[in-house]
Amino acid sequence: MPATVIDGKLQSERVAERVKTLASELNLQTGKKPGLAVVLVGDDAASQVYVGAKTRKAAECGFHSVQHTLPSDTTEDQLAELVDQLNADPTIHGILVQLPLPDGINAPRIIQSISAEKDVDGFHFLNVGMVGVGEFANAFVPCTPAGAMLLIEQIHGRDLSGLNAVVVGRSNIVGKPMANLLIAHNATVTVAHSRTKDLPGTVRQADIVVAAVGRPHLVKGDWLKPGATVIDVGINRVPAPDKGENKFRLVGDVDYAEAAQVAGAITPVPGGVGPMTISLLMANTLVSAYREAGLPKPSFSLDK
Ligand SMILES: NC(=O)C1=CN([C@@H]2O[C@H](COP(=O)(O)OP(=O)(O)OC[C@H]3O[C@@H](n4cnc5c(N)ncnc54)[C@H](OP(=O)(O)O)[C@@H]3O)[C@@H](O)[C@H]2O)C=CC1
Ligand SMILES: Nc1nc(=O)c2c([nH]1)NC[C@@H]1CN(c3ccc(C(=O)N[C@@H](CCC(=O)O)C(=O)O)cc3)C=[N+]21
């Protein structure tokens, strides 16, 4: 039986609807709007698309939404100054500095200079540490793993006791926080990466596979345990000559056509984890605004 397709676009719209409702309640109670500042440095084409999507979604959710677009020759000090200004701006509850930053800018320094209370990406060491020790009450969880968890929840519920999860990729922004969230939900977790000896054999143990590698179609159908849940985080642009000269299409890290014949459930690319990332960014910004207003933290579980 072909796999259930996990509709990330639909689920992301559900999250965004809830954000919108809660933003209007905040506005009624306090007269304030959640404020998101998105900072883009340089003219990377893919980054422009993502940043535009984030700024638009924030406006759709009824947020105060500002985008700062700086030229590629911006200095590190100029960028740090903008971050300081946003840290001090009471109308801003979330700051996102789009990565990658141009060469010559020390990205870790800039990211760590964002106030932890406004770090809606969840990249500040304070948030990373809270997620690492399972202290979620005041942590911003990185948007991509948080969105992936909500999709997993649609299939398995919130308690993953007894299930084996394999995360392929160990980056600080996806793989590692993903592993921490799966552990917090009681899964038995293996993290694989480029130095893993038997990747197909490792993936075959998994009831839940999360692929966050950046290699188009790396994970094959015959690597999967039949019935496994497959979460494809990868976003890869590959040439699509059938669409015309110099045309591209987006594909994931999983060979979707093969995997869909073996998996129990699978996320597509596009339309899977990507849209969830953007909605979870809105959710984090909303939570930040609620916190600043002294209101109880809203939750974002996707009950069916
Ligand atoms: N959907 C979304 O919202 C988002 C999607 N992405 C996408 O997710 C993917 C991963 O992103 P990110 O984590 O930032 O990437 P990184 O490049 O930071 O990390 C990639 C990881 O994959 C591992 N890896 C690379 N090649 C192999 C291989 N052949 N076999 C096994 N492991 C391998 C690397 O191992 P090692 O550590 O040993 O080098 C590394 O741990 C990308 O396609 C990116 O575009 C990213 C962020 C958000
Ligand atoms: N500070 C920072 N925070 C990030 O969260 C961050 C970042 N930098 N740099 C780049 C990555 C990548 N990322 C994506 C978000 C949404 C989609 C997304 O919506 N994808 C759509 C397709 C979009 C398209 O058509 O290109 C989909 O998968 O359906 C993809 C990728 C966030 N990132």
From TrEMBL:
The UniProt record gives the binding positions of NADP(+) as G169, R170, S171, I235
Q: Which pathway does the record list?
A: One-carbon metabolism; tetrahydrofolate interconversion
What InterPro entries would the database entry show?
A: Aminoacid_DH-like_N_sf, NAD(P)-bd_dom_sf, THF_DH/CycHdrlase, THF_DH/CycHdrlase_cat_dom, THF_DH/CycHdrlase_CS, THF_DH/CycHdrlase_NAD-bd_dom
Q: Keywords for this entry?
A: Amino-acid biosynthesis, Histidine biosynthesis, Hydrolase, Methionine biosynthesis, Multifunctional enzyme, NADP, One-carbon metabolism, Oxidoreductase, Purine biosynthesis
Provide the reaction this enzyme catalyses: (6R)-5,10-methylene-5,6,7,8-tetrahydrofolate + NADP(+) = (6R)-5,10-methenyltetrahydrofolate + NADPH; (6R)-5,10-methenyltetrahydrofolate + H2O = (6R)-10-formyltetrahydrofolate + H(+)
* Natural source organism: Mesorhizobium liriopis
Q: Which residues form the Tetrahydrofolate dehydrogenase/cyclohydrolase catalytic domain?
A: 6-121
Name-wise, this protein is Bifunctional protein FolD
